[in-house]
Amino acid sequence: MQNNNIVLPFGPQHPVLPEPLQIKLVLEDERVVDAVPGIGYVHRGLERLIEKRDYMQSVYVVERICGICSVMHAQAYCQGVEALLGLEIPDRAKYLRVIWAELHRMHSHLLFLGLMADAFGFESLFMQCWRIRERILDIMEQTTGHRIMVSINTVGGTRRDLTPDMQKHILNELKNIRDEFEKVDKTFKNDLTIAHRLRGCAPLDKDKAYELGCVGPVARASGIPQDMRKLGYAAYGELDFEPVVLHDSDCYARTMLRVLEIYQSMDLVRQAIEKLPDGEYYVKPKGNPDGDVISRVEQPRGEVYYFLRGDGGKNLKRMRLRTPTFAHLPSLVEMLKGQLLSDVPVIILSIDPCISCTER
Amino acid sequence: MIDNLEILNDTDVAARVHELKDQGYRFVTMTGCTNDDGTVDIFYSFDKDCKLCTLKTTVEAGKTIRSISDIYLAAAFAENEISELFEVKFSGLVVDYGGHFILADGAPSSPFGAGVIIERKDGNNAK
Known about the structure:
The structure holds two protein chains of two kinds. Chain A is 48% helix and 14% strand. By secondary structure, chain A is an alpha+beta fold. In chain A, helix 3 (70-85) runs antiparallel to helix 4, helix 4 packs antiparallel against helix 12 (344-350) and helix 5 runs antiparallel to helix 6 (164-190). Chain A is globular. By secondary structure, chain B is α/β, with parallel strands linked by helices. Chain B has a domain at 5-91: Beta Polymerase, domain 2 (2-Layer Sandwich), CATH 3.30.460.80. Helices cover 17% and strands 28% of the residues of chain B. In chain B, the strands form two sheets. Chain B has a four-stranded mixed beta sheet. In chain B, strands 5-6 form a two-stranded parallel sheet. Chain A: Residues 121-284, 288-360 form the NADH-quinone oxidoreductase subunit D domain.
């Protein structure tokens, strides 16, 4: 470090950060020359707790790794345990998992868009995004009894079914949400201040993003067509969709990609409801998990990776997960280099960081 | 049950990782897992076109193995975490947090190691 550089601790408590994360910024005047992320403020040892609970109780634990991604955490975990048990879940459960997962993705992306709007000082846009998000949370509450921790996945399928009335209600609500979101979408597309604040900010080219292990919206905004839903897990293999990909690779692209993915999620929910097969939505698991398995799912922030090891007992021997934000730590450092201090908040938010997920 | 699993000696991992990088694989993560005999399994996962390739090596507790963070920078964070939680160390780490990546000061060392018993500390309200 040269003498005229200063080290500025950004966080762990900062108005723009929803959760505690510290980044030590090495500054030369107003420009970032290096950054060192520091985590460990909300490490809860949940991977260890899994070893103390039986595999059915552990569904509740993984849901609490992060509220915003709780459906996908449970989905990845349940898929892994089901693979260890050799359990094939009913087709209806696979479609139901898609419906709730995509609703979750929508509310997570709207949460992100609101936080991003707040970070670049567009308060009314922030409130409009969250107002629309409330409607999705209402659907969650009506269909599961909870707004965030919906606890809908379990080993063997889902805990609840969707009645025809509920399905019709979701489709109607999605039409209303689409109408409302199109107005907000126009602001993201056309507002000059948003473009001025985000366009060209912290670009991460395709090769660099791939080399640094980027996943999800960050990778897709850099032109990498990577989406774990294309693995075909749950009912995604039966649905018609292609990953949304943008090429500008800057903060604007990372924001707009989420805007476009909200429409994609609406379409996936509609497809899943239209194709929802009749039959059971749960099958009782038998036996105990034995062996090693890796389960991957596309969370709102990108690929989540679960490693599970069972030894034939009720409790898993080991569970390890790697969340998208953990994968984005190296790329965040790269994005920050050369940027102005005043842009640091939006750059950090552009990866949609989830620290609870990262630290477990 | 893990597709495309390759079992290697720890001394052969770096060469294989180099090959995977040349073939265009993306680093996904590394996982540590302590066995009943005290040895530690290390899994290295890589992805290409949504297909996973996983390398597995088993090392003795307390051993220092070669870091792959010079090949994939993204591995540095996973290696820091494993070196704090398990009884395995990495040589040549590009970014070394020195045991303060995820664990707080005063936390038990290697809490995921074999035979580590962590004493429970109750809060002030415990009877």
